[in-house]
Amino acid sequence: SVNQSSTMSDSSGASNSGGDSSKESSRCSTPVLDAYRSDRLRDKMRRRMESGDRWFSLEFFPPRTASGAVNLISRFDRMGSGGPLFIDITWHPAGDPGSDKETSSMMIASTAVNYCGLESILHLTCCNQSKEKITGYLAKAKHLGLKNIMALRGDPIGEDWEEEEDGFNYAIDLVKHIRSEFDDYFDICVAGYPTGHPEAESYEADLRHLKEKVDAGADFVITQLFFRPDTFLKFLDDCRAIGITCPILPGIFPIQGYQSLRQLVKLSKLEVPEEITQVIEPIKDNDAAIRNYGIQQAVEMCRVLLDSGKVPGVHFYTLNREVATMEVLRQLGLWIEDPRRPLPWAVSAHPKRKVEDVRPIFWASRPKSYIYRTQDWDDFPNGRWGNSSSPAFGELNDYYLFYLKSKSSKDALLQMWGEELQNEESVFEVFTCYITAQPNRCGHKVMCLPWNDEPLAPETNLLKDELEKVNRRGVLTINSQPNINGKPSTDPIVGWGPPGGYVFQKAYLEFFTSSENVTALLKVLKKYEPRVNYHIVNVNGRNLTNAPEMQPNAVTWGIFAGREIVQPTVVDPVSFMYWKDEAFALWIEQWGKLYEDESPSRMIIKYIHDNYFLVNLVDNDFPLENCLWQVIDDMFELLDAPPELHSEETV
Amino acid sequence: SVNQSSTMSDSSGASNSGGDSSKESSRCSTPVLDAYRSDRLRDKMRRRMESGDRWFSLEFFPPRTASGAVNLISRFDRMGSGGPLFIDITWHPAGDPGSDKETSSMMIASTAVNYCGLESILHLTCCNQSKEKITGYLAKAKHLGLKNIMALRGDPIGEDWEEEEDGFNYAIDLVKHIRSEFDDYFDICVAGYPTGHPEAESYEADLRHLKEKVDAGADFVITQLFFRPDTFLKFLDDCRAIGITCPILPGIFPIQGYQSLRQLVKLSKLEVPEEITQVIEPIKDNDAAIRNYGIQQAVEMCRVLLDSGKVPGVHFYTLNREVATMEVLRQLGLWIEDPRRPLPWAVSAHPKRKVEDVRPIFWASRPKSYIYRTQDWDDFPNGRWGNSSSPAFGELNDYYLFYLKSKSSKDALLQMWGEELQNEESVFEVFTCYITAQPNRCGHKVMCLPWNDEPLAPETNLLKDELEKVNRRGVLTINSQPNINGKPSTDPIVGWGPPGGYVFQKAYLEFFTSSENVTALLKVLKKYEPRVNYHIVNVNGRNLTNAPEMQPNAVTWGIFAGREIVQPTVVDPVSFMYWKDEAFALWIEQWGKLYEDESPSRMIIKYIHDNYFLVNLVDNDFPLENCLWQVIDDMFELLDAPPELHSEETV
């Protein structure tokens, strides 16, 4: 029988597609939405080479300090937004690279995968390591979600070294070991040297050695830096000539300073070409000029490489810095801030989370916390959230984990949130300034809140006026979304998922407010049953909800051509009880503790923590105008009414 | 900590609710939509007693012949539509009641559960049976999906019998055995005798015996018939007085004929009261008059019972007949044809199918076949259909299984579908007459087709004009649905699920058509990519689709207050390959075989079977007007165009 399957291409034939929907997004797309596509790095490369869509990648080294770790993770988020196909993290035995320290290569690479959603390669050096030790590192990397290894020899201890029997002598030994112990689990990258390895007998010998490394099981090659495009292109031709067929990626080093260039030359034993020294020497004390020149030189070189048609992607040695590399990428047109999101929340790249496509809405502004608190789950909700009565969220004991820590210093936070609080209304003001982006009474913009590390998302900005109104009166909102009744999935503000679809939302509002307000609110909510679902809790465990038997309520969903419904966000009453502990604790951990113990400011925050309620509301009737603002209005109307209209009933 | 949960009632506060949404539907609702509600019969009774919503139940006996089985299943569907809380099937050792024969009590009860979606009680008698045998029957019943047993002694062999040691002597022994072997799995019903069991020492002794039966583990009591309401009400009071607290349901026997009354009296050893004999005797030869009287008497008696406030439901001995019982129920206002459906397709009541909430659309008109072909699955799709590449549908080898068999006789089918077919157009005509409900050229209405056992569903009727047009020209439609963009879930034609929600659909069309048509269709479909998904197959395995990597496509979904998305229908390319075998076979099995082998009519059907294609189309753009009619128009336009516009390419 003849079977002909004509598969639907990623064509942009749909009338409501925006942007170039034929380009595969570099962000780890969810195989749920692209179930047929292999998400192995080598397969992503293959698809990009077939489509001719060039990529870039970024190399970083592990930080030396804890605050360096915090900054590096922020850098990953910022540089990740431009769409690198992958990043890699170097390995230095002296830095305890396989440990659990926040400064270790292992932890940094794992964080990039799990918390920043980036495809990541962990470097691994093998010389002077036992096979057990190496196997242990690989197993740990696999467990943490890492799928790619750059196999290196590393620098042997001491000038002369002798080959160990049954030890790792060369990178090829490591490649063989990985394949032997882990089969095809990892994608393996190896290093190439466009002018030959400094220790090689000859350029030709080093080429043969590279071929052996690749034949032993490597998937692609990244080269040492070089200064002229011809150097790389000749090397590339020579590799192809001896039968190396895998992708070979040029390592680009934008010159960032005179000293760093000298240092680099010393380490790599490369010679800086005449045409570069001539430019650099005269301006060696002018860092800005050198950086500009470095950018220029890198751009020109990359252009030649890309125009050759033989270079599918370029690899940057960032030295953990942003500006120069990003500028080069922008000039090359490779920096693409793809606004499309496969799902409305930040996806993790751990393989075990591959099919995860639904989350509770509560962690929308704290996705890294959500990933942390669910890291021990063996499987993740797919399709539906379901009726799991014990979702087993891990405790959040340390609010200062390097991937959770606020980017702002204590001083900056005090400036934004108040060096001194007079009363509860001082707190209302902070919220209002955050919403409106207006400076506070001391002239500082409130760029974040304990629950929101970034300014208002574009979607939340749609509700700015209503949010301002309610925050002024002490309905302190920390999460919200408008109702959406079938907007195109390519909508720049609220869209997500493949193009050609339609996205929907129920209106949602989550806020802290006083118990007096809650008493009035409960009366008002009776009139809105069953249209409005509510859940109201305080730090002591008071718990009021009209969720039918604690079932999850879908609040975001999308319909796409040729696919099942995607329902990425729910309001789940069970998860809310875990979230509320975190939400209440953030008052103290991130705000209260800025002040002295027993100080009036601290007492105000503590009062709010102890006495306010956390409320979430859902308007189920998504085709109608959002009624939640009316609910709040009605609540205030009741509070403002003369006393005889209040009943004696309190919460 | 104080936990207060106020649960959302089934209140009809929602503005778009129709009907009395506070009444729990008697149809086996899906716990997916009502996940918190226990679906045990005794819990359904408890909820009905709390709400005061009275019920009825129906008792049947197993048929004697295979065609009797076919008729009885149809009767279940018809009488089930009025909303019985449960039905029960009697057990007669002489009739091989535990066998796999279509006439056995076991098979009939199992069919009622699995194929008719009715809560069912299987009677079981225990005397002269070994414990192993009884345990075997119970295990088989459980495996088949039965959850309720009526535990009876049965009639011992011979007039005198002796108690067996370690045997089953009384029904109480069976009750104990069921609880001991199966814990709380089954709900157990026992028989009560309002005037005492004929063999009991005394009325009081029999009451005590009933209490012992109930204490041994029975959940409720159904009584023997009686002729006066007082008889039952006194019995009920006496039961309560000695501490029997479970539900006690009156058994109602509408008098249907003089002979059947006499027979009944002989078997039950009851006395017919004077006031009844006085009416019956004079009219004993007038069956119609007796039936009318029987209806009247039953209605009056039930009214007294229900008005007492002590009777939550009434149980009818139907003698497998419909008319009298249905009339009594209508007059009592208990017959409620609840148009609400928990899901758009007929739900099965097997416990293992409890969470099933998504099916392929193809079996929409053949749900019993779907249930049959998936009966061996251990679990059922919930939430999403998913990417199961081998759903393992069972073969459909016997198109004449009693629960699948057409209700129409061979003669009736020939009248509808043609005693003699002239050509393919004769077949087109049959389809057209089915769609339009106009008589065929011989004056007969076409009430069904091989793929559709019933006339057009109301939803399909919405598309009648367009369907007629295309069928006339040889696009032989067998399944379709309109697009729906957020109609209230209480919509009388397309609604389903809880009230207060919104239902959505993508437009769908499935038809047989010639290969010439398909050639033109494929050209037309190129213009509609990716908006229209198609799948085109023939009996030989030709297989063309643009479904991305054979993924399922959601075509029906609903949004409800406080719940996750329900997506009950998909177009699944993998399942389509199983369905198409059944769809093609039905040409031959149900139509072709009506004619002589080698006859011209048979040859016409065979030609269609061998050469036509089965096509399904989905219009993904559900907010826009259904484009599938335009697709078909375009196809005919291409076919009607002068020859030079056709390419030589054929399918």
Automatic annotation (TrEMBL), chains A, B:
Its EC number is 1.5.1.53. GO terms for biological process: methionine biosynthetic process; tetrahydrofolate interconversion. Residues 1-20 have a biased composition (Low complexity). Its cofactor is FAD. It catalyses: (6S)-5-methyl-5,6,7,8-tetrahydrofolate + NADP(+) = (6R)-5,10-methylene-5,6,7,8-tetrahydrofolate + NADPH + H(+). Pathway: One-carbon metabolism; tetrahydrofolate interconversion. Catalyzes the conversion of 5,10-methylenetetrahydrofolate to 5-methyltetrahydrofolate, a cosubstrate for homocysteine remethylation to methionine. Represents a key regulatory connection between the folate and methionine cycles. Homodimer. This is Methylenetetrahydrofolate reductase (NADPH).
